[in-house]
Amino acid sequence: MSPAPTGLLKIEHLTHIFRENGITPCSDISLEINRGEILAIMGENGAGKSTLMFLISGFMKESSGRIITPEGDSREARRLLSGMVHQKPILAGNLTVLENMILSPEKGFFRKETLKQEIQAVQKHYDLPLDLDSRARSLTAPQIQRCELIRALWKKKELLILDEPTASLSPTQSEELFELIFRLKAEGKTILFITHKIHEVMKIADRIAVLRQGKLQGTACREEMSPAEISRLMIGEDEGPEYLENSNVSSAPDSGEMPVLELTDIQLSELGSPRLKKISFQLFPGEILGIGGIRENGLIYIEDLLSGIIQPDSGFIFINGENRMPLTPLKMRRSGISYIPADRLSRGADPESTLAENISVLKRQRGRGSYRARLIQRARIFIKEHGIRGDAEQQVKTLSGGNIQKMIVARELENRPPLLIVSEPSWGLDFKSRKRLHRQLIQAARDGIAVLLLTTDLDELLSISSRVCVLTEGVLSIIERNEEQWNRNYIGEKMTGADRV
Amino acid sequence: MIFVILASATPLILAALGGLLTERAGVLNIALEGMILGSAFTAILVSSISGSLFQGTAAAVLAGLLTAVVFNFGTFTLKGNPFITGLGINVLIPALTASLSQSLYGNQGIIRPSDMGTLPSVGGISIFTIAALAGALIVLAVFFRSGKGLMIRSCGEQEDLLVSRGINPVRIKQEMVLYSGLFCGLAGASLSLGLGVYVPGMSAGKGWIALVAIYLGYRRVPGVVLACLLFSLAEWGANRAQGFLGLPPTLILSFPYFMTLAALWLFSIRKSRSPSRN
Fold this sequence. Notes:
The structure holds two protein chains of two kinds.
Chain A: E1 7-16, E2 26-34, E3 38-43, H1 49-56, E4 64-68, H2 75-81, E5 82-85, H3 97-102, H4 112-126, H5 141-154, E6 159-163, H6 171-186, E7 190-195, H7 198-204, E8 207-212, E9 215-221, H8 227-235, E10 261-270, E11 273-283, E12 288-293, H9 299-306, E13 314-319, E14 322-323, H10 329-334, E15 338-340, H11 344-348, H12 355-359, H13 371-385, H14 401-413, E16 419-423, H15 431-446, E17 450-455, H16 458-464, E18 467-472, E19 475-479, H17 488-496
Parallel strand pairs in A: 3-7, 3-8, 5-6, 6-7, 12-17, 12-18, 15-16, 16-17
Antiparallel strand pairs in A: 1-2, 1-4, 8-9, 10-11, 10-13, 13-14, 18-19
Helix pairs in contact in A: 4-5
Chain B: H1 2-24, H2 32-50, H3 53-77, H4 82-105, E1 121-122, E2 125-126, H5 127-145, H6 147-155, H7 159-164, H8 169-195, H9 206-216, H10 221-244, H11 249-253, H12 255-273
Antiparallel strand pairs in B: 1-2
C-alpha cells in the first residue's frame, strides 16, 4: 500500500441553497480528499454531485460551510488548485481552442506562439492531440472535454475534476481516458471522478463517495463497498436488477403490414464527406427499433433527417406509405409524429418559458375563460399525473434535467402518436427515471406505437429494443438476436470500428 | 475626396469602435447617439469658455464617460433593460443640451463661438482621424493579443466561462460601456470641433449608423471601419449629387440611409442563407 494519505482538501459542513427556488443541492457535506487518490463521486441525477464540484472548483459560492485547501479557503485558492472538465460545455464558441485555454484573469498582452508551444508540449507529453487553432464552436463533445483537460494539465492543476466524462465517449475512448487517469494518479495528481456508472467506479476508483438528495451517504474504499451496496446508497431502496429483461420480443412483422416509417436509400454528405450511405429501414407499429452508434458519426444525422431539419442528398422517407419528401418539422408534426430529441433544452423545451407553456406548446387550448388560467389549470393536472417535480408557473430552466425529460416524454406520448422518434432518452437520467422511461417506451410499443430509438447507450439499446441495428461509418447493419451478436461486446466492437479521435 | 470621406467617417469610426467593444462584451449600447451629441455640445461649450480645443476634447470625453456611468447605473445597478436605458439617454441628451444652450447662450439653435481655433492636423488629416484609425488598430490588437481581449470576446458568448476562470463578466461589461463612452466622447468632439460649431441634432443618426456598421462589418474591426467608410462615401456622393440631379435634395440626402438599410437587408439575407449547423 502507499504511504499514509495526506489531505489535499477538506470540506466542512458545506451547504448550498439556490436562492431563486430554495432547492438545497448540497446540505451539510463534510468530506476529506486525499492527495493522489481517485475519488469517485456517485449519485443519482439531482443528488448534488455537479453542485458540489462547482463549489470545490470555485465556480459557485457556498451558502455556508468551508472548503479548505492548502492555500486557504478562498474561492480564488480553490480555483487555482482545481481544474474542472465540465459536463455541460462552457467554452466560448467564437474563440479558438487556444484562446479558450489562455483565458484567465490576466489582462496584459500575451505571446501567442510561446503559449502555444507550451500547450503543445503538454499535449505531446500526454498524447492528447487537438487542433489548437480551430474554433471551439466546431468541437465535438469528446474534443471539448479534451480541451478542458489539456488546460488543467497545462496549468498544472493538482486537483482534476471530471464531471461525468464518459457520458459522451465511446467505449474505446473511455478506456483511453481511464489509462490517462491512472497515469495522472501515478504523477501525483488527485482526481475527482463523477459518474453514475457503477462498473466504471469499480474499475478505477480508490475511494467512493455516494450522494443522495444533497447529503453525503457515506464514503469507503472501493474494496469495502460492493456494487449492490453502492447502488443501494445511491437509490435509497432496492430497485431490483438495473436492466429490464429482454422481454420485448415482438412477433416478426407481418409481411403484408404497412410500415409506419420507411427510409429508402438515404444518402447524406456534409462538407464533402459522406455521413449516411444508402440507409434503408422499415418501422412497424408496436415495435421498438433501436439504432445504436456513435452520435457524431451518424445518429445525429438520422435524428435531424427525421425531424425535418436537414434534407438528404438522395433517397426517400415514407410515412404511413406516403412519400413525405421534403420533410419539414411542420410536416412531421402534422403527421402526428412525436419526437423526443437528444438536445432537450433547445429542441425539446424552451428553458425560458414556464412549465405550463412548454406542456401545451403542441396543443391549442379551447374553451371559455382566461386562456392563461386554463393553461395553468391543465398543466397542474398534467404535472400531478406524471409526477413532475415543479410548478406550472416555474421556468423550465430551473427544473432538474430529469424532470425536464419527464415533462417532454409525457408531452410527446400524450396524444398516442403513430410514430415516436426518441433520441438518447436516458442521457443524464438517474437509475429510477431511466427505468421509468424504459417502461414508458415499452408500454408505448405495446399500445401499438412504432418507436424509433436512437441511442449510444448499449445497455439501453439491448434491453428495450425489439430489433437492433448499428450505424457504423454511415452504414446500417442489422444485429441478429442470437448468442453471438446480441451482446454488448459484439455491438461495441461494431460501433467502434468507426471510431476516430 | 479621400480626405473628405475620411473626415466625415471619423466620428462614425470612433463611435462604432466604442459600440463594438460593448457589442462583443454582450451589451447592445444604443446610447451611442446620445453620447455623441452630449459630447459634441460639451466640446464646443468648454472650448469656447476655455479657449482650448484640448480642454474641450477632454471635457467631451468626460461627458461621454458620464453618460456611460448613467447607462451602467440604469442597466447594471438598477438592473434595468439596457435598450430602455439607452433610449432614455438618447431622448434625454438633446433636451438637456437644448436647455443648457438656452440658459447659457439665450437660444436653442446653432452655437458658433467666434474665437475657435483650427484642429491640428498631419498632412491634411485631422488629429481625430488619426486617433480613429489608431484606435481601430489598438482595438484589433487588444482583441486578439491580450488577455483583456479574450475576456471581452468570450463575455458576449459564454459568461459561464469567465465565471469559471474567476472573472466577473458584469464588470467587463461595465468597463466596456465606459470605453464606449470614451470613444463616443472623441466622436462628439471630432464632430463639433471639426466644424467649429454646434448644431442641435448634429449627430444626425451617427450613433445609429455606427450600430449598423458594427453588424454590417460582421462585428470585426476591419469590417466595421470599412462599413463606416462606405457610409461616408455614400454621404459624400449624395452631397455632390444635389448639384446636378433633378431630385428633391431631401430625397438625395437620404440616400446614405437607404443604402444602410439595403446593406442590412443584404446582410441578413446572406446570413440566413449560409448553412448554420451548431
